[in-house]
Design brief:
Blueprint (H helix, E strand, L loop, with lengths): L13 H13 L1 H5 L9 E5 L5 H9 L4 E6 L2 H14 L4 E5 L12 E7 L8 H11 E11 L6 E3 L3 H16 L10 H7 L2 E14 L3 H16 L2 H6 L5 H12 L7 E13 L2
Parallel strand pairs: 1-2, 1-4, 2-3, 4-5
Antiparallel strand pairs: 5-8, 6-8, 7-8
Helix pairs in contact: 1-8, 6-10
């Protein structure tokens, strides 16, 4: 099954693009402090979207060569503009489908994936395709979230309901909002060796004021971004949705907290 932009539960609104641009630098240290690529190595970035992660990767490894692809023409144009503004010459963009790759096998030293597998109906197929792109002993790095890891206070049935709406919509599109916990077995099943998974914890309460802003602009914005679809499809009514979103914002107020876990997997192609 080929990938399509419609599998992206978050949509491609200006609001979502702003959320992605905001999110990437906030999580840069958390996700990328231990990702560096050697000079002259060829890196295939999968599903680069608007280039938010591309910029960070290229800045951290300025002598590596990046081939970054996405299926969305609109996203690629924004990614190209972002990289151009940052003056990063060693990034080439192209339009491609992860399940129908135009590259020759055994031509990349590294593969990087961030927040893509959760949207794919068959992530194992995608990983098998990407493994074939790697040279012997080449590496793959994958970062994914897991909505099921989110805990917050104060609890609310309506807040949990709007999160469940997000989960249901992503599942209806063939995605898996809980894929973070599955990274290890997916990478093993796809034939990678030396697989290690490291959890990346995000925690926020009033003692971390900058994180409160991030909760509003990243997590709550992500959930609220599917509100129109949830209401239109009839899985929730507007009044209940608005109540749930209001309750989610309470976790950023005095006495509130939220904690969630992302998962970063690294593996190597077997010889």
């Amino acid at each position: 099954m080929k990938q399509t932009p419609h599998h992206y539960v978050h949509g491609h609104s200006d609001r979502e693009l702003e959320r992605l641009d905001y999110q990437a630098p906030k999580f840069a240290d958390l996700f990328h402090h231990d990702t560096r690529y050697p000079p002259e190595s060829r890196v295939l970035e999968v599903g680069c979207g608007v280039g938010a992660q591309t910029v960070i990767l290229a800045q951290n490894s300025p002598s590596a060569e990046f081939i970054s692809f996405d299926i969305s023409t609109e996203s690629l144009l924004k990614a190209q503009n972002s990289v151009f503004r940052k003056g990063l010459p060693k990034v080439v963009f192209c339009k491609a489908d992860v399940n129908d790759l135009p590259f020759k096998p055994n031509t990349f030293d590294h593969v990087f994936i961030c927040f893509l597998l959760e949207h794919l109906p068959d992530p194992l197929l995608a990983l098998n395709n990407l493994r074939n792109m790697l040279r012997p002993k080449g590496t793959i790095t994958i970062i994914e979230g897991d909505v099921g890891s989110v805990v917050f206070y104060p609890n609310s049935s309506d807040a949990n309901l709007v999160i469940d709406c997000f989960v249901n919509l992503q599942r209806q599109m063939g995605g898996n909002p809980f894929i973070g916990r599955e990274l290890w077995h997916l990478m093993i099943d796809a034939g990678f060796s030396d697989v290690t998974i490291s959890p990346r914890l995000v925690y926020s309460d009033q003692s971390h004021p900058k994180h409160v802003e991030e909760v509003n602009n990243i997590f709550i914005a992500m959930i609220d971004g599917v509100g129109e679809s949830a209401i239109t499809t009839g899985i929730v009514d507007k009044k209940t949705w608005n109540k749930g979103i209001r309750d989610l914002h309470r976790i950023t107020e005095h006495g509130g907290m939220i904690c969630s876990t992302f998962f970063k997997g690294v593996g190597r192609k077997r010889v």
